[in-house]
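Fill in residues.
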């Protein structure tokens, strides 16, 4: 099993993810090879909270052009975790 530093890349701070905070749901970019069980253990170990549910989604990279050269941004994986009642992640507070 991977360590939590290898699973969690960074939190996602956007309007949609901030709206989910009211429902006690937090959004993270995660390692594309990580599964839901690894994500759950990583969040619990990193922040000392109890995770109730995990949703994951794969995000395809976009096609980008610079002049005649066509490239693609890398694919990503996003996870939304729901915490148990009474648990919070202080990292998101005040953002």
């Amino acid at each position: 099993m991977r360590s939590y530093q290898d699973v969690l890349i960074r939190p996602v701070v956007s309007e949609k993810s901030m709206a989910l905070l009211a429902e006690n749901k937090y959004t993270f970019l995660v390692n594309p090879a990580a599964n839901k069980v690894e994500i759950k253990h990583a969040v619990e170990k990193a922040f000392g909270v109890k995770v109730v549910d995990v949703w994951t989604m794969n995000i395809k990279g976009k096609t980008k052009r610079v002049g005649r050269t066509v490239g693609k941004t890398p694919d990503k994986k996003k996870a939304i975790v729901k915490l148990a009642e009474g648990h919070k992640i202080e990292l998101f507070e005040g953002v």
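Residues 61 and 74 are 5 Å apart (CA to CA).
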